[in-house]
What we know:
By secondary structure, the chain is mostly helical. Helix content is 50%, strand content 5%. Helix 2 (31-58) runs antiparallel to helix 3 and helix 5 runs antiparallel to helix 6 (162-182). It has six helices and two strands; from the N terminus they run E-H-H-H-E-H-H-H. A two-stranded antiparallel sheet has the order 1-2. The protein has helices at 22-29, 31-58, 63-83, 125-128, 130-157, 162-182, and strands at 8-12, 107-111.
Amino acid sequence: MPIERYPARFELDAPLEVANWRPLVHWLLAIPHIIVLYALGVVSGVLAFLSFFTVLFTKEIPDGFVRTQAMVLRYELRVQTYVMFMREDYPPFSFSTVAHDDGIDQTRMSLDSPGELNRWLPLVKWLLIIPHLFVLFFVAIGAAVVHLISFFAVLFTGRYPAGMREFVLGFLRWALRVNVYVMFLTDDYPPFSLEQSPPPGGATPGSAAPPPPPPPPVG
């Protein structure tokens, strides 16, 4: 069953088939994106620092901060999924500061506006998140091992194993939620879960909308 809807949602809509040679070169082709991502990381760090004080004194984060942080997180996930050869399409150099995904890429990430926040939580979030960091350390080791096995799987079969890809995506999803929490973009404590959360409306990502109710009987 999907977990309760979390303010940050991430999914990858790409085929499992990947050309055999791509694991050998994606890290090299992604260098321009990695340089851009480094600069965006500096901007994100500054905004997170300023957000600490805006939440502390106003209980809110400026909407521009939220949209910019969403852009950085989305850009990072697009680059990560490419470097990890889970997709073939080259990520766009897109800097659209929108909270909800613009739909131009296979990697999609949306972030809900946090609204009013608890002014005191920024003082203790670093402490509250420690259990997640501890567990994520071991999940990251598992994801690295799975990714290494997938390297040879793609190299020899041209296909990323579905279960392995979902595990790595689950790790990225978990890390995203932790980042959103510690960047003061939500007060919702992240779940200890690799699962995707349902989008607005409660439907599971990729599922069809429920059929409309039948019309009432005539007469």
